[in-house]
Design goal:
4-stranded parallel sheet; alpha/beta; Aspartate Aminotransferase, domain 2; about 10% strand; 12 strands
Length: about 475
């Protein structure tokens, strides 16, 4: 018998044992529900024994698998598995005491609002770090925090709110979140009993519309004075959700995908995600039209600069098919890549009377150029020691006076770690940084080879050497963003 066969036989016996001697009675109405008890079935028992057979008594492959899948489930970048809910609370609160947070750090003597009828493990970290818990009463019969009393608990020493959802019933998250946003407070949710519970505004609200409506309201309120309106819309994105009136015509155009399901975090499931993508783009296009129409209506069209851009390349999550729509266009790569498909984005500007419609520029720029550009346009002093270069000469049709970057540098810490640099007509990309920080560097002539398919590294060792020198000197060290 091989080791693999022996393991399979052991695990089969464990499953049989659990199903025979640990089978739980099906719940019936009226049965007592114990507040705290072990919840498991044969899967948990066999996985426990499987791990023990490898003698992983602490963190092993199951931990790594759980952290990855749980992060995906929550829609977050990272997840850290600890030994208990108490430790999770301690770790969460400890993060708020980090010196990296500057003045927003929780210091000894600062106050943290919590709930009176809660768990000791929610309060203990607050006391352990020398902060002061401020207790707010509960409502009956919900036994959750009374949000009408939050303002009474606020003082100039308040830094955070840390409360648990009671017995799986979510507290009024909308009100608590609004309170924290209003007063610039940290919010720590203790979800020990509420994992899987859902809290929505009303189940019918499209978040994109909330952002757009707030932006339009802001423009109206500030129409008589200079304003800066930043409208970070959320579509198109991997949840692939859009109101049905926008979906219907695209469902009809792509009926062959009607049985395809797109899945994303928080158990989001969308039928025909292929149709959802152009539907979201259509909704976004209508949004841009709303903004432009409002500026025209208010007589601000000639005095307002409008910029439309994106933060990264096309994604493949949620059932989107970037190849089907040729989402990367003439370049290679997707979101999270440092090939141009991941970082080269549309940048469209309307400035009536200043920029001629249809004007195109080949000037190489990046988002860090926006700050000095806006500062110059506003007549403000550009901050010292920044990497950005004002784009005003290019915007005003004066390319001879436009300064250029010696290089542009990027790094990304997921998917093995990667970094890239654009210098002149050339681009260098280095992947797998976490395992091979001195690994191979790819070199491309980005002008002649925009898809980055012809690696010139072997032919141009001089460019490899130049790129490595820039890559090693361009970054600013940060303890949070070290290569693993």
């Amino acid at each position: 018998m091989t080791e693999q066969q022996a393991r399979a036989e052991i695990l089969a016996k464990v499953k049989e044992y659990c199903d025979t001697y640990h089978k739980k009675k099906e719940y019936e109405t009226g049965d007592r529900i114990p507040y705290a008890s072990r919840v498991y079935d044969s899967d948990e028992m066999t996985n426990l024994v499987d791990s023990a057979l490898e003698f992983w008594l602490t963190a092993g492959r199951y931990t790594a698998k759980f952290e990855k899948e749980f992060a995906n489930y929550l829609g977050v970048r990272f997840c850290s598995l600890v030994n208990s809910g108490s430790s999770a609370n301690l770790l969460a609160f400890a993060a708020l005491t980090s010196p990296l947070l500057g003045d927003r750090r929780v210091f000894r003597g600062d106050e943290v609002i919590t709930v009176a009828a809660g768990f000791p493990t929610t309060v203990t970290p607050v006391i352990q770090y020398g902060a002061v818990p401020v207790f707010v009463d509960v409502t009956i019969p919900q036994y959750n925090i009374d949000v009408t009393k939050l303002e009474d608990a606020l003082s100039e020493k308040t830094k955070a709110v840390m409360i648990a959802h009671t017995l799986g019933n979510p507290f009024d998250l909308k009100a608590v979140r609004a309170f924290c946003d209003k007063h610039d407070l940290w919010l720590v949710e203790d979800n020990c009993d509420a994992l899987g519970s859902k809290y929505t505004l009303d189940g019918k609200t499209y978040s994109h519309d909330l952002i757009v409506n707030k932006a339009l309201e802001f423009i109206r309120e500030n129409k008589d004075k200079p304003f800066f309106c930043y409208m970070p819309v959320t579509i198109p994105h991997a949840a692939m959700q859009v109101p049905e009136p926008y979906m219907t015509p695209w469902r009809e155009k792509y009926p062959e995908f009607e049985n395809v399901l797109g899945r994303y975090s928080y158990n989001t499931v969308v039928r025909n995600p292929v149709a959802a993508f152009p539907a979201m783009v259509t909704r976004l296009d209508d949004t841009v039209g709303q903004v432009l129409d409002l500026l025209k209506e208010l007589g601000l069209e000639e005095d307002t600069i409008v910029i439309f851009t994106s933060d990264n390349g096309p994604h493949h999550e949620g059932g989107h098919r970037p190849d089907f729509f040729n989402s990367s266009g003439a370049v290679r790569g997707l979101k999270r890549d440092l090939y141009d498909g991941g970082i080269r984005e549309p940048f469209v500007i309307q400035w009536k009377g200043k920029i001629q419609p249809g004007t195109v520029t080949d000037h190489v720029a990046a988002f860090w150029d926006i700050l000095p550009t806006f500062a110059q346009l506003a007549g403000a002093k550009t901050p010292d020691n920044i990497d950005g270069i004002s784009l005003v000469p290019t915007l005003l049709g004066d390319p001879d006076n436009q300064k250029s970057h010696e290089y542009l540098y990027w790094e990304f810490h997921e998917m093995g770690g990667k970094r890239a640099v654009r210098f002149g007509d050339f681009k260098a990309v280095q992947n797998d940084m976490n395992k091979k920080p001195r690994g191979k560097i790819e070199i491309y002539n980005i002008v002649e080879d925009p898809k980055e398919l012809n690696n010139l590294a072997d032919q141009r060792p001089d460019l490899v050497q130049k790129a490595r020198k820039i890559l090693n000197s361009a970054r600013t060290s940060n303890p949070i963003w070290n290569w693993k």
